[in-house]
Amino acid sequence: ALDRAIQSSDSVLVLADDAYFKRLWCVFELASFLHFHEQGKNTGTIEVKIHPISQGTFAVGMYVVVAFGVFAWTLACIFVEHHGLVDLTNTVQALVFYTVMAVPIWWLPKFYFCHSFLLQRRAMERQLATFSVRNAECAVEADRAIVEGKIKEWFGSLATFDQCVHGGVVRD
C-alpha cells in the first residue's frame, strides 16, 4: 500500500527528527518516492522537502514568545505609568525602559528558539551529507535484505542511492 500512496503523490514533505535517516523503513519511503518519480529527477520537477520536526516547536515557541511579550509589555507599561516610575513620553527614558524590558521579554527567548532551531537544522544537514543507507537501523534484521534489495533494484546499488541523497535530488 505504501508504493501506491507514494506513486500518487507529486511531492513529499519529511518532518525529520534525529532518527529519521537512521531508520531503514523511513529511508525506504524516501527511496520509493525517488524511484517512482524518476522522470522528475531529470526535469527537476520532483519535490522533496525535508524540515526538522522542531520547526513546529520553533513556530509555536515564537508565537508564545510574542504573545507573552505583548502581555508582559502591556502590564509593565501599565505598572510603570500607574506608579510614575518612568516618563514614557521622554524619549531617553522610554528607550531605556524598552531596552531593559524588551531584552528579557522578547529577545532572549527569540534568540533561544532561533539558536536551538539552527542547531537542529545544521545537525539534519550533516546527517544528509554523511547519509549512508548501510548505516540505517532496522528493528527486524530480516527486513534489511528486503529493503536493501529493492533499493539496489531501483538504483543499481546502495552507493548510487546514497549519491542521490548527497547530490541534491533530495532538496529543501
Explain how this protein is built:
With about 170 residues, the chain is mainly alpha-helical. The chain has 7 helices and 2 strands. The longest helix is centred in the middle third of the chain and has 39 residues. The protein is rod-shaped. The mean pLDDT is about 85.
Overall geometry comes to: rod-shaped
| Overall pLDDT score | 85
Low-confidence stretches: none
Q: Could you give the distance between the termini?
A: 26 Å
Q: Kindly name the structural category.
A: mainly alpha
What oligomeric state do the depicted chains represent?
single chain
Please give the order of strands in the largest beta sheet: 1-2
Which helices and strands occur, and which strands form pairs?
Layout: H1 2-7, E1 11-16, H2 24-36, H3 38-43, E2 47-52, H4 54-83, H5 91-129, H6 141-155, H7 158-166
Parallel strand pairs: 1-2
Kindly summarize this structure in a few lines.
The chain is mainly α and 172 residues long.
Question: What are the salient characteristics of this protein?
Answer:
single chain, 172 residues, mainly alpha, two-stranded parallel sheet, 7 helices
